[in-house]
């Protein structure tokens, strides 16, 4: 589904991603983990097209999307929920969701029922402004907005950051459901290991701009945690 081959990325003179490889099989739920500053968000932004790569390839569904615009990648099925959510605070919940409809390219003007089914709170609050929602509700809105595009791959950057535990649980359940019931492939960055273990089936440990270890989530043992994640 997603095959990243030997990509390099720089911010000015700073070399951030180093010949990075990653393979995410279709139907899986992969979690990128690693200490602060190792390049997790940068990698997600390279996949969505928000940041250019210097060399290497990003293959999505068999197509090389390395040079495609963010809009085109979204149209071909890459959905993105950014860190910090980035919803529009002055627009209503419904307007936030409708904005994404325009990017679908199929002319539909109806928000898919699935979004309100997954997140009933968005239905209840659809006429409220995005900025009036709690952090957890805004995260649900950000996920709903990505789902409006009917993605095949859903990318989430720290979806539980700054969110109260009961909403974290709901978000975890929705991600699992999207993956297991609806067959969505998922790639997320997550710092909270218990959440990562519950939601994901694969892990990718990043260190200094590379994927240094990967495997099934059950293989994420104490040695790896000590070596790559302890601070
Ligand atoms: N816009 C930018 N300009 C210059 N350097 C940047 C920029 N954004 C990030 N960096 C640097 O790139 C490196 C990787 O950052 P990135 O945000 O990808 O790491 P991360 O693993 O997601 O970290 P965190 O867990 O703290 O979010 C860091 O050293 C960071 O300081």
TrEMBL record:
User: Mind telling me which CDD domains this protein's record contains?
Assistant: ABC_TM1139_LivF_branched
Q: Name one Pfam family in it.
A: ABC_tran
Q: Which SUPFAM superfamilies match?
A: P-loop containing nucleoside triphosphate hydrolases
Q: Identify the InterPro entries for this entry.
A: AAA+_ATPase (IPR003593), ABC_transporter-like_ATP-bd (IPR003439), ABC_transptr_urea_ATP-bd_UrtE (IPR017780), BCAA_Transport_ATP-bd_LivF (IPR052156), P-loop_NTPase (IPR027417)
Looking at the keywords, is Transport present?
A: yes
Query: Which intervals hold domain ABC transporter?
Result: 2-229
UniProt keyword list? Amino-acid transport, ATP-binding, Nucleotide-binding, Transport
A GO molecular function assigned to this protein is: branched-chain amino acid transmembrane transporter activity
Keyword presence, Cell inner membrane? no
Any one GO biological process: L-amino acid transport
**Domain of life assignment:** Bacteria
Query: Which NCBIfam families does the record cross-reference, listed alphabetically?
Result: urea_trans_UrtE
Q: Which family does it belong to?
A: Belongs to the ABC transporter superfamily.
Protein's UniProt name: Urea ABC transporter ATP-binding subunit UrtE
Q: Native species of this protein? A: Gilvimarinus xylanilyticus
